[in-house]
Design a protein that fits this description.
Distance between the termini: 63 Å
Number of strands: 15
Oligomer: single chain
Strand order of the largest sheet: 1-5-9-13
Helix content: 10-25%
Radius of gyration: 24 Å
């Protein structure tokens, strides 16, 4: 009985392996170009902490579509003594179909905790649009600045 089940499972596994085709890197024919951002993360003050998470995700191009995604210029600094600076930035490309063109540029994001015991947190996201046919979509992130300058101050930007 076990031998029969084992040979049956082996035959099923062989059929499944034959039926699976490997995925191609780009089967849609479009072009997608992605560049990460210019990221800087500094903890300069005594007993300070700086955390940064920066993500740039490519867009999707189909047909003769073109997608260009550029990450933002992200600066995160904890300069004050006992300060904390946390930054989370995300740039997501758009979708171009046919002869569509999509350009997505992340924001110029600055986060600074300068005062003694201060806390500055920043979370930003830039998401590209959709273009099809001969359409165009251009998305630019903002110039986002977040500063906690005084003693025990707090600044939060989303």
């Amino acid at each position: 009985m076990r031998a029969t089940l084992l040979s049956g499972f082996a035959a099923l596994a062989a059929l499944a392996a034959i039926a699976i085709h490997p995925a191609a890197a780009q089967t849609t024919g479009g072009i997608s170009i992605t560049h990460g951002g210019g990221n800087m993360n500094v903890a300069k003050g005594a007993f300070s902490q700086a955390d940064q998470s920066a993500t740039t995700l490519a867009g999707m191009a189909g047909g003769r579509g073109r997608v260009i995604t550029n990450g933002g210029g992200n600066r995160n600094m904890a300069v004050g003594k006992f300060s904390y600076a946390g930054q989370d930035t995300t740039t997501v490309g758009g979708t171009a179909l046919g002869r569509g063109r999509v350009i997505t540029n992340g924001g110029n994001n600055a986060n600074l905790a300068r005062g003694f015991g201060s806390t500055a947190t920043q979370s930003t996201m830039t998401m590209g649009g959709t273009a099809f046919g001969g359409g165009r979509s251009i998305t630019n992130g903002g110039f986002n600045s977040n500063l906690a300058a005084g003693k025990f101050s707090s600044a939060d930007q989303q």
